[in-house]
Amino acid sequence: MIEAMFQYEFLRNAFFAGVLIGLVAPLLGVFIVVRRLSLIADALSHVTLAGIAASLLMEKKIGLLSWNPLYMGMGFSVAGSLLIEKLRSVYKHYQELAIPIILSGGIGLSVIFISLANGFNTDLFSYLFGSVSAVSRQDVWVIVSIAIVVVATIWFLYKELFLLSFDEEYALASGIRARAIHFVFIVLVALVIAASMRIVGILLVSSLMTLPVAASIRVAKGFKQAIAYSVFFGELSVIAGLFLSYELDLAPGGTIVMLSVCILLITIWWKKWKRG
Amino acid sequence: MTKEEALKVEHVSFRYEKENVLEDVTFSVPKGAFLGLVGPNGSGKSTLLKCILGLLKPQQGNIFLFGTPISEFKEWHRVGFVSQKANSFNTGFPATVEEVVASGLTAKLGLFRFFTRKEKDAVKEAIEAVGMTKFQKQNIGELSGGQQQRVFIARAIVSKPELLILDEPTVGVDVHHVQNFYNMLEELNRHLGITLVLVTHDVGTITEKVTHVACLNKHLYFHGKAAEFAELQADDLSAFYGHHLHVLSHQH
């Protein structure tokens, strides 16, 4: 694959995009998992699908819009994240309800848009399951910008995000601007989901945010170590997954996810074996 | 209102829907005092605390922290809080004792500021003050209930608050360690000069440690020095608790 990478631009694009996503998805994932919000990624990815379907539909029917469907996907994803927050405050005692509501709403909209368009070509399929050849240079730039924003935000808001994740009540009582910080965080999650789906696909996006973290919290001592291991496991599965899928001609999204599952199983066994 | 008062509660009343939880509660805590706020379960202690921390707004009355009405109070780093629920956190959370204690500096340090040598030293000191130095690199979920509670106290005192409020801190602490725990609080009060408000339903144990006592059961039944409280007849306490009560004295 390395030789081929020098030859084909699309492989280089996929590789760069993959490495960046392998960094930012688990980085945000740590905060999501410890706050028990793992399913938020799933809900938002389905809303993103609705945005992409809407963009493709407009392109097909009106022919005016030929921008990257990623933009509308991102817009829908951010709107969905804000709706989840709103619903979580409406259903104070059933906060998890927000997730299935947004998830089914997202699929419902997508199905309508897809049927209105009388089906799409393989383009939509590549969004569902990810595709290496689909990553354009423009996509890479979008992902680079998102990665910079995500890493900078986590860097500057690390102590606030840690406190908010560990003990929300205390965070509120100590007077930090919890709502504003949570808002920034959830918008970042929406952006990263939209960015990641090019590589792993909408149906598998949430796995990159949760599986490396699930493996990491089995072995990590402390939160910073949990972040370091999550990113390491995320990168390992993305890079190895891209190589394997190219060499064996497999779907990259599926290969990456199954490698994450393998890493997770290994950490579980390792922990058990260590305990004896 | 003198500057010598860390906390002042003035004619505070609070209702949830139609039920009165607090009725015309008035008391104050001088700086350097160790107040035991006692009352049976459901007496409105936790509601009062939430009002003091600004999480609930009483329908009537005023609360002052260091002489400032809490609606205008901005210096929350001067107030430390250890919640009753502190040790019901997600025990699978991957955070070391050090990380948890350091998080107590978040509000004081402010946005976009990073931990420096000074903060790291403060974290070390706080962990030492609660006797947890040996465990600082361990994940908090691996500790016992009493040890976890000590960590939460370290988190509360790391920002060097002048007033520390503890809501039933001994719930979940092994009976044998409760006395040790109170000794540690007494140290914090005497040596570090922190004003303490300890909320508890356990009247017996604390009267020897605290300097002031306030008894709450919707109304304030008693407010005064610990010595005066000890002189109260058991009958008075029974009326307050609503059933017969034996006050046991410990001999040390």
TrEMBL record, chain A:
The chain crosses the membrane at residues 14-34, 39-58, 64-85, 97-120, 140-158, 226-244, 250-270. Keywords: Membrane, Transmembrane, Transmembrane helix, Transport. GO terms for cellular component: ATP-binding cassette (ABC) transporter complex. It is found in: Cell membrane; Membrane. It is a multi-pass membrane protein. Its main location: membrane. The keyword ATP-binding does not apply. CDD domains: TM_ABC_iron-siderophores_like. One of its GO terms (biological process) is response to zinc ion. The keyword Transmembrane helix applies. Belongs to the ABC-3 integral membrane protein family. This is Zinc transport system permease protein. It comes from Anoxybacteroides voinovskiense. The lineage of its organism: Bacteria, Bacillati, Bacillota, Bacilli, Bacillales.
UniProtKB/TrEMBL annotation, chain B:
InterPro entries: AAA+_ATPase (IPR003593), ABC_transporter-like_ATP-bd (IPR003439), ABC_transporter-like_CS (IPR017871), Metal_Ion_Import_ABC (IPR050153), P-loop_NTPase (IPR027417). It is an enzyme of class 3 (hydrolase). Residues 7-242 form the ABC transporter domain. Gene3D superfamilies: P-loop containing nucleotide triphosphate hydrolases (3.40.50.300). Keywords: ATP-binding, Hydrolase, Nucleotide-binding, Transport. Belongs to the ABC transporter superfamily. This is Zinc transport system ATP-binding protein.
